[in-house]
Sequence to fold (380 residues):
Amino acid sequence: MSGGVTNMDDYDVVFLGYPIWHGQAPRIISTFLESYDFTGKTVVPFCTSHSSGLGSSDTNLHPLAGGANWLAGRRFAGGTARGTVEEWINGLELPGPAGPASGRAEFHFDTRSVTLNSGYEMSINGLGTYSLRGETCVNAVKSALASGVRLIDTASAYGNEREVGQAVREAVEELGIRREEIFVITKIYPGSEMADLEASIQACLDRLGLDYVDMMLLHHPDRNDVKAYQAMERFAEAEKIRSLGLSNWYVKELEEFLPQVTVTPALVQNEIHPYYQENDVIPYIQDLGIVVQGWYPLGGRGHTAELLGDEVISGIAEAHGVSSAQVILRWNLQKGVAVIPGSSNPDHIRENTELYAFSLSDGEMARINALDRNEKNDWY
Fold:
């Protein structure tokens, strides 16, 4: 309050908390209300006090923000359980978020892209590099970019950020692709990388050698994940990271995490394939205005052959004259799930981009939806 709020226009709801002093709110609360235009905003007062309630202290503040919608306040005594506060907040009739986060992001099949809530465009199909190393990685990324792929996913834990960065730089020089056309995602990993967050984030950028990274994710939840995300927010403010996201976050984790951060994630990346469909998680994330991206879209290590050989999927593939892999990837896209299949085979990489000359009927989508086994193939 004393330092000023430079982005007050960005807020629709303001929680106004203060201690009761002699039955009144401290003077700084009045000064705060006098310093901004609260017209159209919802203001929710609450206080801490050993014995006295809010009384008239909150209504005395109303004229200072006359254009606001003031909700009834509440007093919380010392030692009030966190759950009690959360129950009160959840019971309030608050307006929903404004702007991009208020609706689902739409996939544009003509441009093969989606506009993230950060304002940036991201391809809806790309290349995952989990198991790629050395020259194999460099060649796979360059092959993907030559085939029209514009989304490359890596991570510090993959040990191939240097190769991915090298491939992108060489593709820009050799293929005439502009750096701005290529969307690069990397991730920082809980554990040792959390010891010095700023250094770990900068190390990712240094290994990539691309001036900026299009998106950085937290690889999975951790006791330090909020601090890590806040450090990423600072790098985003410095324009070294363009968009922020999460990997391996589900409904419970998101409910706990999102209220603690300032920047809404632009993307959540989870394991998603016909045998593990996350049909309760995907719409929850999408309704927050966050794009969902699926890793292991073809089943993952040791499970791909079974999935590609599934009679339902192979039958649909035969009917369309395409491969089982293409059917699975198209199924994801029609569910609003971006895909990052991994491969080092140039033919498979190219095949995994050819997803837009056919579409699946409602009946075919339903038949694949019926394959869900809730069968997760990795521990995240």
Notes: The mean pLDDT is 90. The longest helix spans residues 161-175.
